[in-house]
Amino acid sequence: MSIRLKLTLWYSGLFAIAFIVFGITVYNVVEHNTMSELRERLREVASKVQTSGGFFGEYNLDSTAPGFDASVIGIQLVDYRQRHAGIVLGKSRNMLLGVREITMPYPDQSEARERFTDASIHQTSFYIYEKPIYINGTKDIGGLLLVGANTDREQQFLSQLRGILWLSGGAALLAAFLLGMFLSRKALAPIDRVTDVAQRIQSGSELDLRIPRERADDEVGRLTDTLNGMLSGLEKAYKNLEETNAAQRRFVSDASHELRTPLTTIRGNVDLLEKIWAEQGDGDADNQAQGLSDADRRQLSLESIHDIADEARRMSRLVNDLLALARADAGYVVEMESLSLRPLAEEAARRASFLPRRAEWLVGPLEALNGVWVRGNRDYLLQLLSILIENGFKYTNEGSVRLYAARTGDYVGLTVVDTGIGLLPEHIPHIFERFYRADVSRGETAGTGLGLSIAKWIAELHHASIDVQSRPGEGSAFTIWIPVIPEQHDAIRG
């Protein structure tokens, strides 16, 4: 059963219950008012019938009392003195018409009391008022006065009222059902649109679709806004996933190349060492090594070992980079302490002087770092500076790479500027993405595109930011802005 039909049935059921209560209330009020008026008329007629004394006195059974209508009201007198079951002592003339003489039913003496009863006589409805007549001076009932009114007209009126209520109730229920179907269809139309959009984006090919919004403040409007926001996030996540997958595929290709080259070199050198030092009589290997002297063998072995060590270090750097990024993904917590920034920068500059390079290495000015303390991890900050400095050396074939410092408010900046190949403007927003390498350097400079991603992660750990300025053919400047901590430096130094 659909939600639309369920809502309609609930709505129709509640309407039916409300209408039944309303109909019963209306009917009871009308019936009570109609019969109350009739009861008053019957009491009034009964009080006017007896006209003189004696046990029964003289009863005018054809009274002209107010409210008496001979065409509607009949009077009957019952005597209990001779018989317990009672005998009819007299009737009004309108009850003695031909063969259709009307006798109103009455109770035995023991059951006689003042009351109103309903009776059907010759298929005619009567409403009867029974009034006991007491023997003079006693509480014994000697007779019973019955005043009855023909209620065919009232019963017909009440029957018509019931018919009207049933007919109008049925029509109203049908109208409520149809209206409920219409309203539920209109109210649930946005849900149908949500379903349609969900089915269309199920394959993931139309994530740019959005649900049309027609209502401003109702629940469906808020649901539409929430779902559209979710779809926007889903689209963004899907695109990021596609970009990440493309970057990972690119990384796998680069990493495979980076790993294959050192592995090939290591394997070749191991094979060469095996051939050089193979024992006599080992076939071709022996023949190749026969013309070598011990000094030549030693020289070739040292060169092979050197090559193996270089390639092993290269592979180790790649593994370390991957480990650093894995720590970033895992939310690795780094121990922080208060650090004096100038000694740290000088240590990074000293280490950089031993790196292989083709450009001139310049340091300073660093006076802006005097007395500056930051909250951080010494090893990671050194790694951050090393990454930027190594990148400067890597992409600068001639000219210089410089490290200098500047202070702005509560932040201190360490800048690594080079005169290298620079970056195109469209590459700058992506250089901190994992596995990303600008096309201008691909194939010309070794690397995996992981260094700047690690640098960004380290900067974020220290609540720092990295600003990049670059022009193709002129060089690049990377500035790390680190927040300064307001501490008593003298006490820390002590």
How much is the radius of gyration in Å? 55 Å
Q: What proportion of the residues is helical, as a percent range?
A: 40-55%
Give the SSE order as H and E letters.
HEEEEEEEHHHHEHEEHEEHEEH
- Large-scale geometry: rod-shaped
> What's the total number of strands?
14
Number of helices: 9
Side by side, the strands of the main sheet go 4-3-7-6-5
Task: Report on the architecture of this protein.
- The protein is α+β, with helices and mostly antiparallel strands.
- It folds into 3 domains: 3-159, Beta-Lactamase (2-Layer Sandwich); 212-332; 334-493, 2-Layer Sandwich (Heat Shock Protein 90).
- It is 49% helix and 18% strand.
- The chain is built from 9 helices and 14 strands.
- A 5-stranded antiparallel beta sheet has the order 4-3-7-6-5, with helices on one face. It has a 5-stranded mixed beta sheet with strand order 9-11-12-14-13.
- α5 (294-329) crosses α8, α6 crosses α7 (378-394) and α7 (378-394) packs antiparallel against α8.
- The chain is rod-shaped and about 160 Å long.
- It starts with a helix and ends with a helix.
- Mean pLDDT is 78; it is low at 51-55, 439-443 and 488-494.
